[in-house]
């Protein structure tokens, strides 16, 4: 498939017509590697098919340069092929012995230096063999890769092109840019003899689209085609290599795969480029290697020094690289394609690469470049003699951490640890820095490096401070080895009351970690609450260490409900007022404050603090991202915004898949609460089939899974089984001391299940017990829910009075979903009419805003007038409407994706957004709603 070469073909055709009339010529096809010179040359014989033109062709190759007269033999073999034996013999006898020596297998003639040569009379003899052939029909002589032609053949070609008169011949040779060797007079003669130089241009975007169509059998997306065109810069070889690589990887010519086209580095192309580079002079290869090593820091002076070239040699080598088609331009000093870099690196030995990177590091350091640029060079070196290397790597790691790149920082620090001169506290500090970088994405490595550092530290305070670099687990149990380590360093340090200054702060933070580690032990929880009470009603909270300890003690008071909700809220907000939002807080117990505010139904003011935390957080390890998403999910759930909470919780669970120890439990617990609020059976099944049951034995995970198992049983009518599961869970929570009615609201469920299985006495007892606990705790959401649950067991006016009280209490709550539930129950108990309809309309608006489709369905069923049947307006985007319409036609997500030319993941996102906006639970309800959307 030859595209956009009509101009060149026309010029060759014109030359052939002139040759037929007796005017011979030489044409030179030039251009960089991969531009399509050979493909064009192979197409030229088609011009001779309609005319009586004889074609002679030869292909030169680097491996055959020592094969004397190889190209001449190819040309004359094609001339003699098919000729009768007698005619063949007569032609060979034309110049008897000398001419015969060119074609026989005997040793060729040698000149004084021992180089194969061809006598003058043989030059004439070979030309004379062409004369009778050209008299019969014009000749088209094709020689591919003139730069590789063996010297005797090149001598004859140079002789021939000066004596074309009377032969009726067109000689077309290809010559790759960068191979016009000034010291080769024969090649110079061939170039000078060319009447015309033809340079095929890079392919246009339109031609690129045609090649894509040929490769994939379907037209390519516009964005995909542009990506392929940009990355190949119109070079046919680059383009076809990229497309072949994409096809082998299963990519399709769609917009979603455009980035893959930009980033692909085809191995086949790399090998072609490497082969071309190996044939270049040493200065050219040295300069290419210097550009590859310096990358974005490539500057003429630095490149010249690294490659060991003087200014004249540098300019010559630079020009040569550009002519080869490897550089974008002589000014930009960047490679045309990523594969060029790969080719250069593959052509160097390990020792050569290390030597160049080490030298580059020294150059950059001595001219004062930033530490990260120097460190990037040191990363490629296993050992270095530079005395400043370790400090540069540490400075680079510090910079990387500040910009939110802990993995990069860890790479710098691991490289620094290879320096054999480090020992004692110097090595310990480096290990601690490395552990600090790793704690957000590799906690096991963090713990290992802290354990290695501690024996190298000389004081108890330093050892304790190092141990605190290990991040605590917010919910769930940490590895026993971490607990043992914390106990050991705390013992060495001593109690906080006996210490002052920095040592006291370290001791307080250690106490916080150790007390939190006992959050599943009733005795430890009780002791923590007593310790909190001993701090007084207004703890100082002056230092961050005091705030960390208070957060842990407050969490014990929350779990046990031993403090009233308003007291918890006041103290938690005081902590946040004094604790600026920073990205590092996820590595401390401070996120426990969020759980306390959720339990206290006091989350309205925390959103701004979380927003500040997100602004200061930089993209680091996914465990950090998971915890931040969990916090948002918890706060949104506490406000009843379950559809939005689900998005954050599901994102947190996905991020925690590879960081289970730090975020797996807490993210699953957050998603569990959302699933229960939504009564989403599919999501519940997904949680039960997830890794939680197998990977955690913590009480938080166990109780969460028991809750969703009970919900699944209740959904399927297995009420007795659901009740047994809930009661067992409740007994376990009570025995542990976890009695908070907001965080562990198992009694309201058990009450309803007792009623369903026909045990009203047990239901009433549990409802009364829940109301008592709710009053003691004092959070509006707990009290309002308890009143609603008790009213469900009653009839008539007493039930209505309790429901009105529940609604009044919940209007002070942040949880709009609980208010909607109380309003629904009240509307069902009121007589049909004005007040009931008004109450149900308010409930419908709240439920829809919260994204609770099943509750919306209940409201529709409760309101016989149908006034609340339509959810509040939720404008869909044009794309969401299109997706919804295609779903309404019965198409699957994959079919919709194929129809729109996007990924299935994109379709899922659009549908999830549509469900949330319309207040529906899934595909079926969306399809039912479509007719009203279109009306």
From TrEMBL:
InterPro entries: AAA_16, P-loop_NTPase, Sig_transdc_resp-reg_C-effctor, Tscrpt_reg_LuxR_C, WH-like_DNA-bd_sf. CDD domains: LuxR_C_like. One of its GO terms (biological process) is regulation of DNA-templated transcription. Keywords: ATP-binding, Nucleotide-binding. Residues 869-934 form the HTH luxR-type domain. One of its GO terms (molecular function) is adenylate cyclase activity. GO terms for cellular component: cytoplasm. It holds the Pfam family AAA_16. This is AAA family ATPase. The lineage of its organism: Bacteria, Bacillati, Actinomycetota, Actinomycetes, Kitasatosporales.
């Amino acid at each position: 498939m030859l595209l956009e070469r009509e101009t060149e073909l026309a010029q060759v055709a014109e030359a052939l017509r002139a040759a037929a009339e007796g005017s011979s010529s030489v044409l030179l096809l030039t251009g960089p590697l991969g531009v399509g010179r050979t493909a064009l040359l192979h197409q030229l014989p088609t011009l001779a098919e309609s005319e009586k033109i004889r074609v002679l062709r030869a292909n030169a190759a680097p491996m055959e340069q020592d094969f004397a007269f190889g190209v001449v033999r190819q040309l004359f073999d094609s001339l003699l092929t098919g000729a009768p034996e007698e005619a063949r013999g007569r032609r060979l006898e034309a110049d008897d012995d000398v001419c015969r020596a060119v074609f026989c297998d005997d040793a060729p003639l040698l000149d004084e230096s021992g180089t194969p040569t061809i006598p003058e009379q043989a030059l004439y003899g070979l030309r004379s063999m062409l004369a009778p052939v050209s008299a019969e029909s014009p000749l088209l002589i094709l020689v591919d890769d003139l730069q590789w032609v063996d010297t005797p053949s090149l001598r004859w070609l140079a002789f021939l092109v000066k004596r074309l008169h009377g032969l009726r011949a067109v000689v077309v040779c290809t010559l790759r840019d960068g191979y016009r060797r000034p010291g080769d007079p024969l090649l110079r003669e061939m170039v000078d003899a060319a009447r015309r130089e033809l340079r095929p241009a890079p392919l246009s975007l339109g031609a690129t689209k045609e090649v894509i169509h040929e490769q994939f059998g379907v037209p390519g997306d516009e964005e995909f085609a542009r990506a392929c065109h940009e990355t190949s810069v119109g070079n046919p070889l680059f383009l076809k290599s990229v497309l072949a690589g994409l096809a082998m990887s299963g990519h399709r010519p769609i917009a979603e795969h455009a980035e893959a086209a930009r980033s692909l580095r085809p191995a086949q192309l790399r090998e072609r480029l490497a082969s071309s580079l190996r044939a270049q002079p040493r200065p050219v290869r040295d300069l290419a290697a210097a550009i590859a090593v310096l990358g974005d820091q490539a500057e003429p002076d630095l490149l010249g020094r690294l490659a060991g070239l003087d200014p004249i040699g540098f300019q010559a080598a630079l020009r040569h690289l550009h002519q080869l088609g490897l550089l974008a331009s002589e000014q930009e000093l960047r490679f045309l394609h990523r594969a060029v870099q790969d080719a250069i690196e593959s052509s160097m030995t390990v020792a050569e690469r290390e030597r160049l990177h080490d030298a580059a590091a020294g150059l950059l350091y001595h001219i004062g470049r930033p530490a990260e640029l120097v460190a990037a060079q040191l990363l490629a070196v296993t050992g270095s003699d530079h005395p400043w290397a370790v400090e540069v790597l540490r400075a680079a790691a510090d910079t990387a951490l500040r910009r939110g790149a802990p993995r990069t920082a860890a790479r710098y620090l691991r490289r620094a640890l290879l320096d054999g001169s480090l020992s004692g506290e110097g090595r310990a500090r480096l290990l601690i820095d490395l552990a600090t970088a790793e704690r957000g994405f590799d906690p096991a490595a963090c713990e290992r490096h802290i354990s290695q550092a501690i024996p190298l530290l000389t004081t108890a305070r330093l050892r304790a401070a190092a141990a605190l670099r290990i991040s605590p687990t917010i919910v769930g149990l940490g590895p026993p080895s971490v607990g043992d380590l914390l106990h050991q360093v705390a013992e060495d340090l001593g109690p906080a009351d006996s210490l002052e200054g920095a040592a006291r702060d370290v001791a307080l933070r250690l106490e916080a970690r150790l007390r939190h580690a006992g959050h599943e032990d009733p005795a430890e929880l009780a002791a923590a609450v007593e310790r909190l009470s001993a701090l007084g009603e207004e703890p100082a909270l002056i230092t961050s260490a005091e705030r960390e300890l208070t957060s842990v003690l407050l969490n014990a008071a929350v779990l046990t409900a031993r403090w009233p909700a308003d007291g918890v809220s006041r103290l938690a907000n005081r902590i946040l007022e004094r604790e600026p939002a920073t990205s590092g807080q996820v590595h401390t117990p401070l996120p426990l404050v969020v759980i306390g505010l959720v339990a206290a139904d006091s989350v309205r003011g925390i959103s701004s603090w979380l927003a500040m935390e997100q602004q200061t957080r930089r993209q680091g390890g996914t465990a950090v991202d998971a915890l931040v998403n969990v916090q948002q999910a918890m706060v949104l759930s506490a406000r009843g915004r379950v559809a939005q909470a689900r998005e954050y919780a599901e994102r947190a669970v996905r991020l925690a898949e590879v960081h289970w120890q730090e975020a797996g439990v807490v993210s699953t617990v957050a998603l569990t609460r959302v699933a229960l609020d939504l009564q989403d059976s599919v999501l519940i099944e997904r949680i039960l089939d997830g890794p939680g049951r197998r990977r955690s034995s913590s009480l938080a995970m166990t109780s969460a899974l028991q809750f969703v198992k009970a919900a699944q049983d209740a959904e399927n009518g297995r009420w007795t089984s659901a009740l047994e599961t809930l009661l067992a869970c409740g007994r376990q929570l009570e025995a542990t001391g976890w009695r908070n009615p907001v965080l562990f609201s198992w009694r309201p469920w058990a009450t309803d299940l007792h009623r369903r299985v026909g045990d009203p006495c047990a239901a009433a007892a549990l409802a009364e017990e829940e109301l008592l606990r709710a009053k003691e705790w004092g959070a509006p959401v707990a009290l309002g829910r308890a009143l609603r649950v008790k009213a469900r067991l009653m009839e008539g006016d007493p039930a209505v009075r309790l429901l009105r009280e529940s609604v009044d209490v919940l209007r002070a709550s942040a949880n709009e979903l609980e208010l909607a539930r109380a309003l629904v129950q009240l509307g069902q108990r009121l007589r049909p009419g004005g007040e009931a309809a008004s109450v149900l309309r308010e409930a419908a608006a709240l439920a829809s805003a919260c994204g609770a489709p099943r509750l919306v369905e209940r409201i529709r069923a409760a309101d016989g007038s149908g006034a609340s049947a339509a959810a509040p307006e939720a404008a869909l985007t044009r794309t969401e409407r299109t997706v919804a319409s295609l779903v309404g036609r019965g198409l699957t997500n994959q079919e919709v994706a194929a129809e729109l030319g996007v990924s299935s993941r994109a379709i899922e996102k659009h549908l999830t957004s549509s469900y949330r906006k319309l207040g529906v639970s899934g595909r079926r309800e969306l399809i039912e709603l479509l007719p009203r959307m279109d009306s």
